[in-house]
Design goal:
The chain is mainly alpha-helical and about 80 residues long. It contains 1 helix and no strands.
């Protein structure tokens, strides 16, 4: 048997348990931090996607609003001669 003060001595069960507990605590902390960062990232992705969608919709509606009165006027005038014939 090796005394516990020698460098090649095996750690006791209690020492191994303490090391494992410390390492598991570090792992838990890292996983919690990762989870929080992923939620933040997902929020940013959702927000940027929402803003991009709103921009696309606003641009499309603006084009429709700008084109609609001129299209409506030209379609009405094009229908009028057909209706008279």
């Amino acid at each position: 048997m090796n005394p516990s003060n020698q460098p090649n001595a095996r750690p006791t069960r209690e020492e191994l348990s303490a090391q494992l507990s410390d390492q598991l605590t570090c792992l838990r902390d890292a996983l919690v931090s990762l989870s929080i960062n992923l939620k933040d990232w997902q929020f940013e992705v959702d927000q940027s996607g929402k803003l991009a969608s709103q921009k696309i919709v606003t641009e499309a509606l603006s084009r429709c609003r700008l084109q609609r009165p001129s299209d409506a006027g030209s379609s009405e005038t094009s229908r009028l001669p057909l209706a008279k014939d």
